[in-house]
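During the no-cost extension, the postdoctoral fellow (Dr. R.K.) reprocessed legacy sequence entries with the updated structure-token encoder. One reprocessed record is reproduced below for audit purposes.
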Amino acid sequence: MDKILTWNIGGGATTTGPKSDDPDFLNIVTGFQIVCLQESVTEASLPGFTSYSNLRTSLKGGGVTTLVHNSIRKYCERVNVNIKDDLSLNTVVIKIPMLT
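Re-encoded structure tokens follow.
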């Protein structure tokens, strides 16, 4: 299993529905331990993963989701970050010890 994937999913939908229902998307994403999604717009969830999201509510688009595979979830901790000067910035910070 590869370790980290980052992907701008551009709104999280395809012409046939949510990307999380797309078999090609699932085949790619489920091969990673940590998946960082940008432009997620809505809460993303996948079987076998814990989802951490920060969705934009004041502007169109945006939002980030980090999916952590349940096999390493016990080693991860969400860290709250306050960025007051830039309301357009969405962050999810996950503290992870060294993975081998």
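The chain has a mean pLDDT of 77. The beta strands are 2-8, 13-14, 17-18, 32-38, 49-54, 64-69, 77-79, 93-95. The remaining legacy entries will be reprocessed before the final report is submitted.
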